[in-house]
Amino acid sequence: AQTVTQSQPEMSVQEAETVTLSCTYDTSESDYYLFWYKQPPSRQMILVIRQEAYKQQNATENRFSVNFQKAAKSFSLKISDSQLGDAAMYFCAEVGGGNKLTFGTGTQLKVEL
Amino acid sequence: KAGVTQTPRYLIKTRGQQVTLSCSPISGHRSVSWYQQTPGQGLQFLFEYFSETQRNKGNFPGRFSGRQFSNSRSEMNVSTLELGDSALYLCASSFGLAGDSYEQYFGPGTRLTVT
Asked: Distance (Å) from the C-alpha of residue A101 to the closest C-alpha of chain B?
């Protein structure tokens, strides 16, 4: 069974600083994909970044990057130059083998002035 | 290109009633997935439809059902509502099956309150 664990229910970061959100997962699939989704107060889920497990290179999208450690089954999200608009709930998710998308419990990120 | 739309956005029902929620996917997307989001259980997968066929199902009772039409629009139905069904119901569409790594795009959700 797939499981995704986010051990940080809440995180805070100062504006313009860098923050890292943690995620670990467990899957028996050899071919799988990992995602970070953002859910702001509007509740609209937005895809932030995606990583293919077969790729060694860490994915990057502007200020967002991941640290993908396949052997450790770890997939952390780094947000650089944090902005007020980054305040949201962040969900880590995994899918593979034709299975359903499995989400972690989320990390609430607060951005402070 | 228009995003995923869900109707209604808010709904209040009484215990024992039934409810139907609708989801219109992004044009060209053939897969629609449904999720239930609650503070206690987080995001839980309900089911996924692709080409009018249910392809994946989560661990929900038979009171939760869905269907997909030939234009890829999907509906989900909850019968005999219980207080615990109060939640945000999210719909997501993707070009192909989510399990094949196709990115899912989410709608704004329907907030269901059962009293």
From this structure: 7
